[in-house]
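JOB MANIFEST
job_type = single_chain_structure
chain_count = 1
residues = 290
[input]
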Amino acid sequence: MMIAPTLAKHTLAAMLIASAVHAQQRTEILLWPNGAPGSEGKTAKEKVRIADGGDHVISSIHRPSITPYLPTKEANTGAAIIIAPGGGHRELWIDHEGYNPAQWFRDRGIAAFVLKYRLAAEDSSTYTVDGHALIDMQRAIRLVKHNAAAWGIDTARIGVMGFSAGGEVAALAAMRWDNGTPESADEIDRRSSRPAFQALIYPGNSSRFTVSKQSPPVFIAAGYNDRPDISKGMAELYLKYKEAGVPAELHLYSSAGHGFGVRTTNKSASAGWPARVADWLADIHMTKVK
């Protein structure tokens, strides 16, 4: 657990205000406290490296988890988003595609949960996207629904968000959901894994995505200067949803490439995508009107 440090030389009053408004305990909740299926015998410690820009990049994930960012009771809209960072299924860029957007949405009354999922393309990995990363996302959805009452969340307003490789994981969860296993001894597994909505931010492998009339509403954002399967593929994906009659919204930012996420250094129009998601969630009645 890590607690945001107070800043030196501030007055006591300023520190108290900062603590009340900005401090966030970063506490991970294991998806399977007794061990994730498929991770038996894997005891290697999680690795963290610091990228050139200061981002924390995570790998060697064998104990998948979620980190909650819960809004205050006064600000709470009842909606929640489970966020899957990207990293090519080799690692997770946990700051600009995880903690930063989670904090942004929390501060606007939308609960957020940063997912650490298992990595299929890491060196010597025995994991697969469909058999482990997707299962981790499905379990996260069930876990949030199981604890929804305690966290002030409406179970009908829990969605998924993913960036790059995490966008693939989020999209697969919106494609391959189930209603739970009523006879399971595990109460969490009795919950449905269907997300109420999906926000796909420059997702990878979109050629795999299938759409049906039962698909959850989708928000799509990407950069015009991204690689063709994304810069062009997102327009094609939007048309799939349009043809299926599923509510969809698409934003292609003319000056953006890949990986813009949420960064304070981004001064282009693409920095505004979280606000567009918030507007969209209000439009599809996922957040309460204040």
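[summary]
The longest strand covers residues 111-116.
The helical segments are 12-21, 95-106, 129-146, 148-151, 165-175, 228-231, 233-244, 273-283.
exit_status = 0
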